[in-house]
Design brief:
The complex is a heterodimer of chains A (276) and B (215). In chain A, β2 and β3 form a beta hairpin. Chain A is 48% helix and 14% strand. A five-stranded mixed β-sheet of chain A has the order 3-2-1-4-5, with helices on both faces. Chain A has nine helices and five strands; from the N terminus they run βββαβααβαααααα. Chain A starts with 15 loop residues before the first strand and ends with a helix. Chain A has a domain of 191 residues: Ribonuclease H-like superfamily/Ribonuclease H (Nucleotidyltransferase, domain 5). Chain B has one domain: Nucleotidyltransferase, domain 5 (2-Layer Sandwich). Chain B contains seven helices and five strands; from the N terminus they run βββαβααβαααα. Chain B has a five-stranded mixed β-sheet, with helices on both faces. In chain B, α1 crosses α3, α2 runs antiparallel to α3 and α4 packs across α6. The longest helix of chain B is centred in the C-terminal third of the chain and has 21 residues. Classes of the chains: A alpha/beta (276), B alpha/beta (215). Chains A and B meet through α8 and α9 of A and α2 and α3 of B.
């Protein structure tokens, strides 16, 4: 079989990922209650959770929650772009079909170009390692019906959408409750990342892919005062599972390292004995 | 729920080490003490307890401590701790990473089964990494646990006066077990009564003066 007949790889690297989500408003809601088309959506908030695995296996996190107020669109899209630098794997839920499509069109409409990071994500192929649309993954690339983030989170016991719902965003925004919308988009972003961890652990057949980053994330949530509103994620069943299993996984890695060092030491002793 | 036949409460003490001037060694922690409290229930439901603690002075290696612990870890038990993944395990694994390979291998061979399959972290119910100290939580349950003073601990380690450090570690391991059985509710009542009786017996034993000492 020639290489051109092979499907491109979609084994997304797990060491540096950015999960993201956006919230939008629509000026004129369709009278029939249908979901508005892409051009009708205007982003008002976006959240980006970056998880970085260091060389020693520990994880660092950064959460950026951006607001797009009227007149600040260009600055907003440039910040969005800076949150998606080269080398990261972008993670979203229906992001290929909605979030990235909305961001791309709205950035164009404000004549904001030169957004390398956002363009890299928006133009990523369906089968590649730059972007991972989890809705597409969980639906096996269209083999089954697309699942909602809320439904998957409910099954995985991830506490998402506890404060407001997507349909509330427009009303909250117009009422000036920007804080509530920011919290909502951040919650969905964290939930998306937690779904990603389940996915990565499943696809790589390695529980450490979920347990270790999630255990480190719990510590981050519990020790950063600004993240107090999101501490529910540090106490939910998936995180409790991670905290219970991470010590054993860390010890297993340390044990393998000790075994390697011991074998090396014995080899050197044997070599020294033979050299005499 | 108290369902396991053997539990082991583990705690450890560390001191912070600055980075070496030549840049060879990064700043980190140095393990200076470990305590184990082992609670074992026999087939008739009777509890037996063992409390072990060891602390080292400046100049002694962490490997000596790991060797000591490796010889005392049970083959199978449910491990209980305070901030296990965030505090206890990194301290132990960091020490193992720099210990001689034979020591690290032996110690981790004993520790790994205790950490595999789930551990009980008593801090999780109180905010995890952001929880108050064990002493504060235990005090709310009328259980004694030592409070730690970083400078006093480092000072005791530096001058080799580790007797109090060893006693504090032992008390902390006991306190972890006591908070665990208290949190277990009704299922922990028998274990708590047995623990209290064991502690009382040990106090009485310690209260008996040696025959050659003045009254």
């Amino acid at each position: 079989m020639g290489i051109w007949q092979q499907r491109p790889r979609d084994d997304h690297p797990t060491g540096l990922v950015v999960a993201f989500d956006i919230e939008t408003i629509v000026q004129n809601e369709p009278a029939d209650g249908s979901f508005p088309t892409i051009p009708q959506h205007q982003p008002v908030t976006a959240a980006f959770l970056r998880a970085t695995r260091a060389a020693d296996g520990t994880h660092d996190f950064r959460l950026d929650v951006l607001v797009c107020r009227p007149g600040e669109e260009e600055r907003f899209y440039r910040k969005v772009d800076s949150c998606l630098p080269a080398g990261v794997v972008g993670i979203g839920w229906n992001s290929r079909g909605f979030d990235l499509a909305v961001l791309r069109l709205q950035a164009m409409s404000h004549r904001t170009f030169g957004l390398d990071g956002l363009a890299r994500q928006a133009q990523a192929a369906r089968y590649d390692t730059t972007h991972c649309d989890l809705a597409d993954q969980f639906a096996s690339y269209g083999s089954s019906r697309t699942l909602s983030l809320a439904a998957v989170c409910e099954t995985l016991q991830i506490p998402v959408k506890t404060s407001v719902h997507g349909s509330d965003v427009g009303a909250l925004w117009r009422a000036g409750d920007v804080e509530a919308v920011m919290r909502y988009v951040a919650e969905d972003t964290i939930a998306t990342w937690m779904c990603w961890l389940h996915w990565a652990a499943w696809k790589n057949a390695d529980p450490a892919e979920m347990a270790l980053p999630l255990a480190d994330f719990a510590v981050w949530l519990q020790t950063m005062p600004a993240l107090e509103p999101f501490r529910g994620f540090a106490e939910c069943p998936p995180t409790r599972w991670a905290l219970a299993h991470a010590p054993g996984l860390r010890a297993a890695r340390a044990s393998a390292d000790a075994e390697r060092r011991l074998a090396h030491e014995r080899d050197e002793q044997a070599f020294a004995a033979n050299a005499r | 729920m108290i369902t396991h036949p053997i539990y082991i409460a583990v705690t450890a003490a560390t001191v912070s080490m600055p980075a070496s001037i030549d840049g060879v060694h990064a700043a980190g922690q140095h393990l200076i003490g470990i305590a184990l409290f082992i609670a074992e229930r026999d087939r008739w439901g009777r509890w037996r307890f063992a409390r072990r603690a060891r602390a080292i002075s400046a100049g002694e290696t962490e490997g000596a401590l790991l060797n000591w612990a490796a010889a005392r870890l049970p083959e199978e038990a449910m491990l209980i701790g305070w901030n296990v993944d965030h505090g206890l395990v990194p301290a132990l694994l960091d020490a193992a990473a720099t210990a001689p390979p034979t020591v690290a291998h032996r110690f981790l061979g004993g520790l790994l089964p205790l950490l595999t399959g789930g551990v009980v972290d008593m801090a999780l119910g109180h905010g995890g990494a952001g929880a108050p100290t064990l002493a504060a939580i235990a005090a709310d349950m009328a259980i004694y646990a030592p409070t730690w003073n970083v400078d006093a601990t480092a000072g005791a380690w530096a001058i080799g006066e580790v007797g109090q450090l060893r006693r504090d570690l032992a008390d902390e391991a006991l306190a972890i077990w006591q908070t665990f059985v208290r949190s277990a509710g009704v299922s922990g009542l028998g274990a708590e009564a047995a623990t209290d009786a064991w502690v009382l017996r040990r106090h009485r034993m310690n209260a008996v003066a040696p025959t050659d000492s003045p009254a």
